[in-house]
């Protein structure tokens, strides 16, 4: 009778991370298709379905020449994918160091350009994970960003028969690690601005977020409430720590990147620059809704608004860098993933509960008050 073979060690659990982002053109010829994908998304262009194909393509054609000029300033392509890949690599390494008993792999799912969500879903299915964590790289929830990305993921995952436990982080606008990492970057830029402007000069912290049509917010989107939540948390952290000597801080929120002729949320970043110039106030501008450098930061904030600030005679105009793969930011993301895994499958904010005001009907937690999905 042969001896029984001792069982080997269990296979490490395979955990897939899906990182959602907008996507951006990777070559001049990609600008047109990228814009068409963007403006044909019903979450973006909210018009009757039979109008959207015509109006979306019309808007894309109208915007393509200016967009090509912007990307030409960046060498013809956006750095967004490369920066997201760096974030994915750093996050995977951080999680692997924390949980050696598991195997992590990150998949990037861009909404409007490659690697598209369907490509990420196909690669994930081939890897055969045991669990999935969906992590939008949008700190604040909007139906136009995270909502659109999650809806498309659900369709693509269903098409491919992906049926394993899913942990979904819908938003993290004031997650402590994110706030601490971002506040450090703000404090560094504030000190540079202070050194330039002098100790007696007035400085204002301007949180610039990507804008949205006003009607989307009026329909129940929580984005503005989340942006405000982020700004308030950052100011509180700065006043209690890195910039305590400067408290109380002057600060405001503005919105940039208007893309359609309808009325958008206000005030605009251009208006706030003009206001600061009229008051003789220097600006430290924080891209509060972006965690990677791309055209809205490198071209719009740095070049276009920087030129406006200089022409208007601002005492100083200092732009806070995006988080990119800053180690403290990556550590914060790793903490968010671990918390999502510990909570179990379902959808929730970083707190595990709904954080949207009661009137925000586009909150993804609205059907599940506890934040958990069945």
Report on the structure:
- With 374 residues, this protein is an alpha/beta fold.
- The protein has 2 domains: 13-173 and 327-348, Rossmann fold (3-Layer(aba) Sandwich), CATH 3.40.50.1400; 176-319, Rossmann fold, CATH 3.40.50.
- Helices cover 44% and strands 15% of the residues.
- The strands form 2 sheets. A 5-stranded parallel β-sheet has the order 2-1-3-4-9, sandwiched between helices. A 4-stranded parallel β-sheet has the order 6-5-7-8, with helices on both faces.
- Helix 10 (295-312) links the parallel strand 7 (282-287) and strand 8 (317-319).
- The longest helix has 22 residues, at 176-197.
Structural class by sheet pairing and helices: alpha/beta
- How many helix segments? 11
Strand adjacency order, main sheet: 2-1-3-4-9
Report the end-to-end length measured between terminal Cα atoms.
Answer: 50 Å
Order of helices and strands: EHHHEHEHEHEHHEHEHEHE
Strand content: 5-15%
Give structural attributes:
374 residues; alpha/beta; Rossmann fold; 2 domains; 5-stranded parallel beta sheet; 4-stranded parallel beta sheet; 11 helices; disordered C terminus
Q: Concise description?
A:
The protein has 374 residues and is of the alpha/beta class. The chain has helices at 31-39, 52-72, 80-98, 117-127, 146-159, 176-197, 214-218, 223-240, 269-279, 295-312, 327-343, and strands at 13-21, 102-110, 131-136, 166-169, 203-210, 250-256, 282-287, 317-319, 346-348.
């Amino acid at each position: 009778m042969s001896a029984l073979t001792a069982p080997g060690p269990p296979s490490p659990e395979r955990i897939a991370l899906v990182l959602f982002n907008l996507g951006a053109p990777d070559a001049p010829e990609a600008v047109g298709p990228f814009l068409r994908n963007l403006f044909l998304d019903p979450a973006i262009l909210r018009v009757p379905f039979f109008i959207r194909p015509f109006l979306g393509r019309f808007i894309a054609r109208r915007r393509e020449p200016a967009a090509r000029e912007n990307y030409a300033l960046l060498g013809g392509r956006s750095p967004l994918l490369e920066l997201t890949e760096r974030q994915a690599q750093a996050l995977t390494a951080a999680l692997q160091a924390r949980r050696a008993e598991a195997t992590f792999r990150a998949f990037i799912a861009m909404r409007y350009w490659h690697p598209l969500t369907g490509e990420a879903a196909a690669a994930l299915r081939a890897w055969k994970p045991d669990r999935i964590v969906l992590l939008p790289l949008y700190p604040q929830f909007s139906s136009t960003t995270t909502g659109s990305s999650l809806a498309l993921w659900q369709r693509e995952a269903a098409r491919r028969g992906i049926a394993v436990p899913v942990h979904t982080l819908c938003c993290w606008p004031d997650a402590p690690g994110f706030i601490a990492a971002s506040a450090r970057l703000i404090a560094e830029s504030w000190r540079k601005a202070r050194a330039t402007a002098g100790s007696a000069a007035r400085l204002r912290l301007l949180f610039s977020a990507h804008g949205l049509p006003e009607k989307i917010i009026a329909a129940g989107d929580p984005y503005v409430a989340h942006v405000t939540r982020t700004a308030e948390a950052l100011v509180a952290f700065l006043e209690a720590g890195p910039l305590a000597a400067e408290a109380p801080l002057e600060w405001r929120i503005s919105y940039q990147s208007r893309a359609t002729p309808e009325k958008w949320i206000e005030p605009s970043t251009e208006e706030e620059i003009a206001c600061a110039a009229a008051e003789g106030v220097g600006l430290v501008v924080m891209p509060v809704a972006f965690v990677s450098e791309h055209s809205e930061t490198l071209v719009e904030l740095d070049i276009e608004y920087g030129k406006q600030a200089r022409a208007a005679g601002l005492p100083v105009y200092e732009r806070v860098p995006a988080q990119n793969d800053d180690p403290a930011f990556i550590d914060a993301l790793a903490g968010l993933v671990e918390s999502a895994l510990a909570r179990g499958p379902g959808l929730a904010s970083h707190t595990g509960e709904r954080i949207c005001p009661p009137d925000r009907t586009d909150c993804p937690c609205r059907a599940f008050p506890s934040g958990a999905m069945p």
